[in-house]
Amino acid sequence: MTQPADVWPVESAKGVRLTLADGRQLIDGMSSWWSTIHGYGHPELIKTIQQQAEKMAHVMFGGLTHEPAIQLAQKLVDLTPEGLNHVFLADSGSVAVEVSIKMALQYQQAKGKAEKHKLVSLRHGYHGDTSGCMSVCDPVTGMHHIFANNLQQHFFADAPQITPEQPWDESDIDSLKQILLQHHQHIAALIVEPIVQGAGGMRFYHPQYLKRARDLCNEFDVLLIADEIATGFGRSGKMFACEHANISPDILCLGKALTGGTMTLAATLATTDVANTISNGEAGCFMHGPTFMGNPLACAAANTSLQLLIESDWQANILRLESAMLKHFAPARENPSVADVRVIGAIGVIEMKQPVDMKTIQPACIEKGIWVRPFGKLVYIMPAYIMSDQDIKTLCQTICEVLK
């Protein structure tokens, strides 16, 4: 960048606090982009990584396997919605989405339906920054429009408009229904972020939309891909956001919080139908294989992180954080510059009427001892689940003060 914004060197991180090189401490409202759900420097995670590093940091996942990956696959199968019994381990959320797209295409090809090579996505959707991911992100309001001429062209349905607290209106699904009605013979899969559209606007939508989307996919022989990279592992108040609608996808993408924010790791889960159809097709296997697939160090960290989550009172913690954000963000509603305040689970959003000035707002937050990373019109937080009542109060109240 020729005109970079300010950056602040971090010396260390512990719990929910970042310590800057100059000694200042900041309450972290971002959980390092949704990932550090147990806070920084959890002793059990550190111990696991150290012990695994002494045994084996990495080994190729082709023709070889290892206990951390086997345990992790079983944990994910047990934890995720019903029917997702097959696991593919990759090394980042974007790759998990790429894998899900390739799975959908290879599945249709193996069924003798190679003409089903398109996807349908939602406006305001965001699914990652690699090429396949960019092609299913919103082509207008997303961040990837400069690559439009180089991307595969897919179908885009209108974004859901009915929020979780509003009464359901069937017309909200009309756009998706119409696309599937007209083009289902060319569509391999629908990809959605369940209940919460993240980087495309931090938008929350009605569970009935997701339920109806599942019904339509069944009706038109289209796979449903749920991108739960951001929402997975408790963030929305359920272990997985799909549970708000009591549905199970055909393919599920996971990442971010999977290792508690310690290592990069992702997983794509699929049903037995998807896995077996692909495996019985022309290639005889799924055609993807990252070098660091099933990395033992990351898998070991993920196993400990999932155990910490399962054994904790995570639901009560999420409810506690949700209640605190609703209470302490309430004064922002009186700010004439604020368009909306919304909270679901451990996600809190203040939407401004105009884009925020990053060069002003971020230094102001740091001066007051908090770390947030607004974008566009949105000032949002997703705190670590362990954040204390006092820290979440301080974080929310400070944001409200700065926005004045």
Automatic annotation (TrEMBL):
Its EC number is 2.6.1.62. Substrate binds at residues 33, 126, 256, 289, 373. One of its GO terms (molecular function) is pyridoxal phosphate binding. Its main location: cytoplasm. It is an enzyme of class 2 (transferase). It holds the Pfam family Aminotran_3. GO terms for cellular component: cytoplasm. Keywords: Aminotransferase, Biotin biosynthesis, Cytoplasm, Pyridoxal phosphate, S-adenosyl-L-methionine, Transferase. The keyword Ion transport does not apply. Catalyzes the transfer of the alpha-amino group from S-adenosyl-L-methionine (SAM) to 7-keto-8-aminopelargonic acid (KAPA) to form 7,8-diaminopelargonic acid (DAPA). It is the only aminotransferase known to utilize SAM as an amino donor. This is Adenosylmethionine-8-amino-7-oxononanoate aminotransferase.
